[in-house]
Amino acid sequence: MTHRLLTAVAALALTAPSAAQDKPPAPAEIPSPGDIVAAAPAGDWVAIAASDLLVMDLAPDAAGRPRRVVIQLMPAPFSQGWIGNIRKLAAAHWWDGTSINRVQDNYVVQWGDATEKKPLPAGLAVVPEGEYVTATKAEGGVIPSDGKLPPMHWSGYSPGWAWTDHADAYAKKYSYFRGWPFAGDDGRSGWPVHCYGMVGVGRNMPPDTGSGAELYTVIGHAPRHLDRNIALVGRVVSGIEHLSSLPRGTGGLGFYENENERVPIASIRIASDLPPAEQPKFEYLSTESRSFAKYADARANRRDPFFIKPAGEADICNIPVPVRAVADSR
Amino acid sequence: MTHRLLTAVAALALTAPSAAQDKPPAPAEIPSPGDIVAAAPAGDWVAIAASDLLVMDLAPDAAGRPRRVVIQLMPAPFSQGWIGNIRKLAAAHWWDGTSINRVQDNYVVQWGDATEKKPLPAGLAVVPEGEYVTATKAEGGVIPSDGKLPPMHWSGYSPGWAWTDHADAYAKKYSYFRGWPFAGDDGRSGWPVHCYGMVGVGRNMPPDTGSGAELYTVIGHAPRHLDRNIALVGRVVSGIEHLSSLPRGTGGLGFYENENERVPIASIRIASDLPPAEQPKFEYLSTESRSFAKYADARANRRDPFFIKPAGEADICNIPVPVRAVADSR
Asked: Is the peptide bond before A159 cis (omega within 30 degrees of 0)?
């Protein structure tokens, strides 16, 4: 009994990769978001370029099991100054031998050079405060604020920006662009959002002091008050459990107090710099596809078994873009 | 340098107990939410009755360290049917020898009888669907929707319900009542919200099938779509790291696939049933205090160092009610 319950309870919050692997819907059931993703046609999935995947290999765990975390970097025009620095740091193998130094419950896991003395590669850009918000073009509407899906709306949908009025405590409008959620106020500019698994750039007090060498990922409730205050550069698409389940640091702000608590980083590489056979392959469900519109509508209006009161809407961080691993078919 | 940054970055998301232990503000600085909590007068703190604390002792960890999780049960008139069952289950020592069976990343940790065959104590109530929402009385306003703090409003504040218009994807109004956040639509009824650390009652498909024997806590982004679909009965006030940092289950929905992966529960007791010397003591910052109003305003409008763009508002789950341990002074 309990397991049937949990099937229904949990399906709605499965992380995207898991959701994409859900079983197809039983004929009698109203499809869950996971069912809709599982039924999406191949043409609705978009391959993520190996050059946009950052592969972090941690030291094996206590049982000798490998720990690989794969991060997808954000597309232009967002955060490209910091992402350019991250590409240079990876090419220089700068992170090899650094470590995960901070794990704060319901907040972030952070990694980089714990000594804060390791010299940075030459040529890193100083990215100005203005880059936290990016000019965008406005078109149509993606997800109506009532969470309902108007089929006709989608028949004429054109790729690119599409703002929808969906005000909450942190923004007046939201949009999905090339597989990523963004927030905005005026429909002409936008910024990425601090959802679970998003990867950001640590900085010092001055807003232009984040180089990209010190990175963090969100492992708790979305700290949206960081939006427009820190740069976001990507999201974890695989292996976040290797970070989120680490022991919490007992020092201030979740820093590990003893050096031996830190988790060594063996290497961080751009996937396209790995041997072809070792390159991970992922794809995301196109946010411009009808499948995504159905999925988003289902996330906002749970009508599948178990639910007695659909919310009617959904927080942008509760509509994670489905991402799945691709088996190498070569 | 990095550490100065992190001080500012992290202060805004410290869990309440930690925040309550923050250093007092430096004179020149605009106080952070943690600073405001640390400066709150003793009279603004409310002791939590031992009879409202559920103490879960897990088996010691691999290094032999104790793992205690303390849960505060919700006050009347909310969820009392399920909470009555939980009191009976604890009095019967029903959970002793059961285990933590499921850890799903960015979702929940769940515990209870993995065999699903252990007989329940006699006399547990069957709580009807209607209990997911509770009638309330409306008064004044707690947190203005713009997050600003109007001092005069507070001078005449009277305890009890106080709804504020603060619409988001999941409700039209929000309120704090006796230290707990609640959501509502009409100002005359309300329901508890699925924020990080909240504890809920697993159930089967029929909405009245949750007894309280199968419990879960949220360890990821608030799954607010569960509001009004599952009963919430409390929140973890201490030791959530013993749950949130457990290895994720590799089975469907995060269930542990092997029996030896489950974490044994040594005992679950109501604190008042423990020997006086072993009873944990906690207190929460009165949500009817001026200190809480200042704290909530600061959570919504970060003006302390590091921040360049205050959000102006805050998601209800990003204004956790400060709770702190009390040293035994006897």
From this structure: no
DSSP string, A40-60: --GGGEEEPPGGGEEEEEEPP
A124 assigned to some structural domain: yes
Q: B204 to chain A: nearest residue by CA?
A: A5
Residues 6+ apart with CB under 8 A from B78: B134, B180, B182, B192, B232
Phi, psi at A182, each rounded to 5°: -135, 155
B100: domain range?
41-323
Nearest to B2 among A106, A202, A248 (CB): A202
Tokens representing residue B148 in the block:
């600003």
Given a contact cutoff of 8 angstroms between Cβ atoms, the answer to whether A225 and B318 are in contact is: yes
Secondary structure element (H or E) that encloses residue B9, with its range: helix B2-11
Geometric angle at alpha carbon B55, from A249 and B65, rounded to 5°? 40
Kindly give, in sequence order, each residue whose CB lies less than 8 Å from that of residue B162, ignoring residues fewer than 6 positions away.
B138, B139, B140, B141, B142, B175, B176
Rounded Cα distance between B166 and A212, Å, is 36
Cα distance between residue B314 and residue B45, in whole Å: 23
CA distance A232 to A86: 12
- CB A243, CB A109: distance < 8 Å: yes
What is the DSSP secondary structure assignment for residue A234, as one 8-state letter?
Answer: E
Domain with A55 in it: what CATH number?
A: 2.40.100.10
Q: How many domains does chain B have?
A: 1
Cβ proximity of A220 and B15 under 8 Å: no
Residue of A nearest to B251 (CA): A18
Indicate the range of A224-228, B144-148, B244-248 predicted with least confidence: B144-148
A253: alpha, beta or left? (left if phi > 0; alpha if psi -120 to 50)? left
ipTM for the predicted complex comes to 0.88
Query: Among B81, B118, B74, B60, which residue's Cα sits nearest to residue B242?
Result: B60
Q: How many angstroms separate the CA atoms of A288 and A150, rounded?
A: 14
Give the span between the Cα atoms of B329 and A52, in whole angstroms.
Answer: 57
Residue reference for tokens 């360290």: B65
> In this structure, is residue A27 part of a structural domain?
no
A257 interaction partners in chain B (CB closer than 8 Å): none
DSSP secondary structure string, B21-70?
TPPPPPTTSPPPHHHHHHT--GGGEEEPPGGGEEEEEEPP-TT---EEEE
Q: How far B4 CA lies from chain A's nearest CA (Å)?
A: 7
pTM: 0.89
pLDDT, residue B147, reads: 42
Domain-located, residue A5: no
Residue B172 contacts residue B164 (beta carbons within 8 Å): no
Q: Give residue-wise pLDDT tens across range A38-89.
A: 999 999 999 999 999 999 999 999 999 999 999 999 998 899 999 999 999 9
Residue A133 in any domain: the answer is yes
Instruction: State how far residue A10 is from chain B, nearest Cα, in angstroms.
Output: 6
Is B200 in contact with B233 (CB distance < 8 Å)? yes
Per the CB < 8 A criterion, the answer to whether B262 and B99 are in contact is: yes
CA pair distance A19, A37, nearest whole angstrom: 7
